[in-house]
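Section 3.1: Structural characterization of target chains.
Under the original work plan, the team committed to producing a structural model for every single-chain target entering the pipeline before any wet-lab resources were allocated. The record below documents one such target. The sequence was received from the expression subgroup and is listed exactly as submitted; it comprises 332 residues.
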Amino acid sequence: MKTRTLGRNGPEIGAIGYGAMSFSDMYGPTNETESHAILNACRDMGVTHIDSANVYGMGKSENAIGSYLRSNPGARDEFVIATKATITRDADGNRTFDNSADHLEAELDKSLARLGVDCVDLFYAHRRDPRFTPEETAANLGRLVDKGKTRAIGLSEVAPTTLRRAMAAYPIAAVQSEYSLSTRFPDLGLVQTCAELGVAMVAFSPVGRSLLTDHPIPRERIPSLDFLAQNPRFVEPNLSENLRITDEFRALAAEMGLPAAGLANAWLLSRGPHVIPIPGTRSVDHLRECLAGGDVTLSQDDLDRIEKVLPVGWAHGDRYSEAQWIGPERYC
């Protein structure tokens, strides 16, 4: 697989990473054995960047990674591990965010214990807490670099202006945001700002939560998946329209000799040398499909054909429901 750099002065990693939310039960039940099989496959196929968070299964994802590292001495040196914190709950059980120095350090300490490591390679503020300026959040994260608990820091779901302000206070290695052929708002400033500042643009949900694959999640399973059951793109009539439109993309991918997921990730890699997709999956076979785009260089003709079947704005429904929109910064 091709390689990319995780930020201007960061480590070299495989061009496609792995999003370990799938080690939780977000998209269906999973277990440690299945998660370990994915990590074995990552090592075999050149995936070196593993992205997790404290809230993925309330520690389940990090625990799976930690148990794998304990069972496979030497594996830690092969992986560049990222995790995130700040999403929490108030006394009434409502989701809220905490970018305070004490909260960030306490949560990172818990993550380090679950992972079984002394230091992670990248630690993100998962959401921006409006009680803190971008400069304050960056400084609070930066303290953890100074203490040796993370090698670099990042931000998630933020506006370009937030990135600029944070960067002035402490070097930001990466910004994570949903980005794919179905969610293209980062093209309206974030992708460009990351490139200008030497920041990695880490793209989560790069295959559109399965819409951009050869086998989208069956509609009969969606009601059992809390996130998708509320997501506008996966409720009718939007779901049927989105499946109909992406059928053309699946046909184009087959014509080009690629799995649809591979073509979706190859498109993201074409957006700039700083863009790093992190698909997640519970299936080694699907991981292989995602990684099929890792060594593909798309021509302008290829890009034009993709644009013809999936033009900007093709998706029916917003990427989040109103409840799911709490936290991410809207900047366009």
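The chain is about 35% helix and 15% strand.
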